[in-house]
Amino acid sequence: MPTVFITGATGFIGRAICAKMLENGWEVKGTFRKESAISVLPAGVEGVHLDSIESCNFCDQDFTGIDTVIHLAAHVHIMNDPVVDSVEVFRKVNVLGTERLARMAAKAGVKRFIFISSVKVNGEGVLRPYTEKDIPEPQDAYGTSKREAEDSLACISAETGLQTVVLRLPLVYGPGVKANFKNLIKITGAGLPLPFKNISNRRSFIYLGNLMDVIITCVTHPLAVGETFLVSDGQDVSTPELIKIIACAMKKKVVLFFLHPIILKALCKIAGKTEEMEKLTGTLLVDSSKIRNLLGWKPPFTLEEGIRETVRGIEIASPLRGSQ
Question: Is residue 142 flagged as an active site residue?
């Protein structure tokens, strides 16, 4: 049986890809950091303890018989914590950690290395869709570290022959999603009037089920080797459209009203939610035609199907009772 090694196996995406690879007949090894996290791994996954991705405290036997590494583990943005969000921490984990892992994999004879990167390598959004041909313009430490990790992998591939594939993702949603997307679902379900009626942005997303299919394709397809792909559902929507799709999936009525953007931004600044509002109302588009044309990939789920599955997994608490 082919064997895959997955870092970040206890995370939102990691748990899903572990389960999907098992379903497809692969043997799966998945990393965990805390002993309490072992129970999160899907049944059938062989857990591999990892103190930190930058230390790469693996032994040779951890990579014995591994065909493919899927590298999900990363340091991500933590708001309002300048120490944890320092450039040095991002580089240590996302660049040095990735480089060490890739070299260990190459030394052990691993054939393919799938690196989960971010559209933030391209930038924070322009009025047209990003493509793989665009010159990267990361705007923060996270995007910069992902770009540097991609460069390191290209060098390691050239030196060792390790087959690398890079996937740059927009926001991923699905059952178990957290942060801004989960909050948007909760406030939509609460039935409160929302001030987004005249927001005319456009955003690309990718549903977890579609991402699983992308990863499986890149693990097995010979033409994926050495490529970088931007991926999405292929259905770009505005924030008002997204809210209406969520409300429909929840069988809820939603009332949108107009509030001047300047006032909206000012209120969010006072509330300390400027970054969240920018992500919610800004434009960020990706063109995923390269992977569709080169690998023949098509998303198996529509945006509407993905939203329906996502809201099923989120308990909508009453605004009076609070979260249970």
Answer: yes
